Amino acid sequence: MSLSLPAAPLKRAGLLFTFAWFMVGGIGHFVVPAFFVSICPPWVPEPLRVVYLSGVVEIALALQLIPRRTRSFAGYALLALIVAVTPVHIWMLMVPERFPQFPVALLWLRLVIQAAFIVNVWWSTRPDPA
User: Fold this and answer.
1) Minimal CA–CA distance to 79: which of 67, 61, 106?
2) Eight-state DSSP code of residue 42
3) What separation in angstroms does the CA of 71 have from each of 58, 104, 122?
4) Residue 1: inside a domain
5) Beta carbons within 10 angstroms of residue 94's beta carbon
6) What average pLDDT does the structure give for the chain?
7) How many domains does one find in the chain?
8) Does 114 map to a domain?
9) What is the average per-residue pLDDT within 89-116?
10) 64 CB contacts (<8 Å, ≥6 apart)?
11) Residue 50 belongs to what domain range?
């Protein structure tokens, strides 16, 4: 199994950030599941089960970023996951009164950051040129 990191320092930093984000986030689903359940829209069935399942997926995909052989697949899967959770972020913006702990500006900022994060995940998980 090849564990080499990207040669370019910025790409390496992007990959390490992506790994840390999803590993810590995935663990968070098990440490503070009530928080994640609290932001689930009402149309999500069995929110606690979904929170745990998404935590497992985040951890598993973060681990798949380590081997070079599975990194590209993990990147595409993480992009799909990011897109899949975007409706939650939009829903929170639609009903900000349910989340008084989050300023509306922060909810908007999260969408902007999410767009940048999508670019980072795609870029940092592409294979290095030969």
Assistant:
1) 61
2) T
3) 14, 35, 10
4) no
5) 11
6) 94
7) 1
8) yes
9) 95
10) 70, 71, 73, 74, 77
11) 9-125
State the greatest distance between any 2 C-alpha atoms of the chain, in Å, as a whole number: 51
Tokens representing 115?
């767009």
Judged against a pLDDT cut of 70, whether residue 2 lies above it is answered with no
Helices (H) and strands (E) in the chain, counts: 5, 0
In a domain, 3, yes or no: no
User: Which contacts of 119-123 are long-range, i.e. CB under 8 A and separated by 24 or more positions?
Assistant: 120/14, 120/17, 120/18, 121/18, 121/75, 121/78, 121/79, 121/82, 122/75, 122/79, 123/11, 123/14
Residue 96 lies in a domain: yes
Q: Label residue 4 exposed, middle or buried (CB < 10 Å: 0-12, 13-18, 19+).
A: exposed
Position of tokens 């390496």? 12
Q: Which amino acid type is present at position 90? A: I
Calpha distance 74→116 (Å, rounded): 18
Q: Which tens digit of pLDDT belongs to each residue from 27-56?
A: 999 999 999 999 999 999 999 999 999 999
